[in-house]
């Protein structure tokens, strides 16, 4: 393996390239970004060695790290262009529609559907960090549909970055991510909105905001260009997650309104175990 081509040189594409460069300094990185500014920054920051709008013929691995509403056309066009020993991996946050779109492509075996469970609220090449993916989970969907040798090359790369591989089907992936990722972003955005609305009456309200507010509202700084397409791609599962969340919020509101102190304590105590569950997985 000598040549990697990255399309989308933002937080994820950039962090991947920086990490792999550190691990395998002899690799050559080419890449492209639709934003001229981001492409320039990626070159300046050493994320890629050369820019190229087409996928160079000698490329071993193509990484697609653009918003999910751009992935289908980029993936189909990449598969149409590549040689028979080239692998395409995408990093998209939703998987069901993309796996369906590529199901009958004659080069389906040259695609690996991936999702790194790592990120921050920041975007673009300047936010990229070489340690972002370190020890994080990398979900692979429909692994049985990828050519065994190409899959081996992908596992070598991901293991060299110390990523933990997990396998699931794309429908299950999108159902579960709606709850553990997409809902937390919506919840953070709406908390941010609720307090921003309140600022209309109470101009200095943010002077009172401590670290509790900062940590729960962190995700409200996330990129609309990345998140609006995720909400479109995973609409049904996100609506299910939101219905469950709104129902829980309403029941909790009721307990507060009814001054049901013991009910509130019981409810919160039963939710405290989330700390142990999360710590166990780390
Ligand atoms: N940010 C996260 O926490 C996170 C985590 C895991 C997966 N992902 C997924 O990874 C992908 C990239 O996310 P990111 O956080 O790196 O976003 P980002 O905004 O930091 O980077 C995306 C880059 O893609 C470029 N781009 C957009 N459309 C393009 C196109 N048609 N052709 C070429 N370049 C294009 C943008 O200019 C930008 O530089 C998304 O699919 C996202 O769902 C994000
Ligand atoms: O930690 C963050 O800031 C993230 O938003 C990362 C996060 C997540 O929800 O956990 C965001 C989207 C992804 O597809 C995967 C990871």
From TrEMBL:
EC number: 1.3.1.12
InterPro entries, per the entry: PDH_C, PDH_N, Preph/Arog_dehydrog, Prephen_DH
GO molecular function, one term: prephenate dehydrogenase (NADP+) activity
GO terms of biological process kind: tyrosine biosynthetic process
Domain of life: Bacteria
Alphabetical keyword list: Oxidoreductase
Domain Prephenate/arogenate dehydrogenase, chain residue ranges per copy: 2-282
Protein name as annotated: Prephenate dehydrogenase
Species whose genome carries this gene: Arthrospiribacter ruber
């Amino acid at each position: 393996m000598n040549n990697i081509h990255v399309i989308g040189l933002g937080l994820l594409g950039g962090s991947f390239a920086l990490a792999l460069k550190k691990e395998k300094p002899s690799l050559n990185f080419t890449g492209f970004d639709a934003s001229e500014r981001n492409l320039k920054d990626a070159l300046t920051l050493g994320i890629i060695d050369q820019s190229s709008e087409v996928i160079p013929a000698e490329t071993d691995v193509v990484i697609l790290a653009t918003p999910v509403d751009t992935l289908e056309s980029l993936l189909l066009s990449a598969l149409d262009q590549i040689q028979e020993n080239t692998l395409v991996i995408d990093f998209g946050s939703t998987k069901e529609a993309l796996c369906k779109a590529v199901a009958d492509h004659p080069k389906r075996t040259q695609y690996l559907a991936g999702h790194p469970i790592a990120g921050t609220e920041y975007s673009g090449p300047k936010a990229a960090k070489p340690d972002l993916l370190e020890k994080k989970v990398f979900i692979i969907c429909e692994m049985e549909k990828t050519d065994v040798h190409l899959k081996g090359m992908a596992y070598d790369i991901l293991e060299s970055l110390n990523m933990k591989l997990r396998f699931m089907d794309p429908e299950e992936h999108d159902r579960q991510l709606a709850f553990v990722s997409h809902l937390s972003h919506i919840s953070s955005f709406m908390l941010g909105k609720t307090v921003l609305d309140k600022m209309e009456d109470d101009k200095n309200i943010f002077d009172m905001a401590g670290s509790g507010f900062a940590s729960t509202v962190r995700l409200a700084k996330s990129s609309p260009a990345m998140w609006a397409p995720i909400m479109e791609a995973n609409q049904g599962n996100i609506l299910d997650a939101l219905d469950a969340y709104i129902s829980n919020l309403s029941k909790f509101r009721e307990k507060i309104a009814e001054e049901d102190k013991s009910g509130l304590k019981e409810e919160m105590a039963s939710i405290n175990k989330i700390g142990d569950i999360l710590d166990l997985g780390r």
